[in-house]
Amino acid sequence: MSRVKIVTDSTADLPKELIEELDITVVPLRVTFPDGTTYQDGVDLTAEAFYEKLQTADGVPKTSQPTPHEFETVYKQVKETYGEDTTVLSLHLSSRLSGTYQAATIAKEEVEGLHIDVVDTKRASMAFGLIVLELARFAQSGADAQACRERLDDLLKKSRVFFVVDTLEYLQKNGRIGKASAMLGSLLKMKPILSLTNEGEVYAADKVRGKKKALLRMNDLLADEFKSKPVQVSVCIAGPHESSEEVLDMLKGTFDVQQVFESSIGPVIGAHVGPGTIAVAVAPMYNDA
């Protein structure tokens, strides 16, 4: 039986211990601060260090995707390490938010003798990190490429994500929402409950006044679909994690939570959503877990 190897990028915001435990290869994106200093996401810049630097930065950092050559190098290393009978599932940030998927697709064509399935998850952060973890665990249990692909398709259909930002400033400056919307939201102290469309673009699923009400509404939106089902959840926060326990208590009081992942929103996604953002992703829990 051929082996399935999972490759992803750093915007999945995976906890380091799980990357190692599940043998996941992560290709880093980059963050460049206004002073011209560039870092590799998760390699020489941790989430904690990023938010500290952000407090004194003169402007919003810019982000950039890996080059096709970097992906080509990774794929060739997989071939050398695991052999040609390996299938690579390469899962990436929404192509509507980054050129990472396109870079991986270009690289795939340059690697001979290895089956590589490059996937645009149409998600960001732990919204697809949760899927990466599930597939890595499934592959590690011995599932073949077809079974992994079927599970991937099921997860893409059935998983959901919502997030709440402290300020719309970062989304506005990065071109994700209009300036007028950001200004109006700030003036009215409105908190949009954001999600991703089927095409992988940010949209407002609802809006309420105040962050606490926004979190409760986010919980209600998820309950419409998952309340009676066993689920795995991730809570991902941009900055200090004081709020994660409160959010987890809320989720556990509503859902049949079988597995929990806590993580930080990393530098690349953090540059787009800003500090204080709270994201919750929910996916089905499978019987073979």
Automatic annotation (TrEMBL):
InterPro entries for this protein: DegV, DegV_C, DegV_domain_contain
GO molecular function: lipid binding
Pfam families referenced in this protein's UniProt entry, alphabetically: DegV
SUPFAM superfamilies for this protein: DAK1/DegV-like (SSF82549)
Keywords recorded for this protein, A-Z: Lipid-binding
Name assigned to this protein: DegV family protein with EDD domain
Taxonomic source organism: Salsuginibacillus halophilus
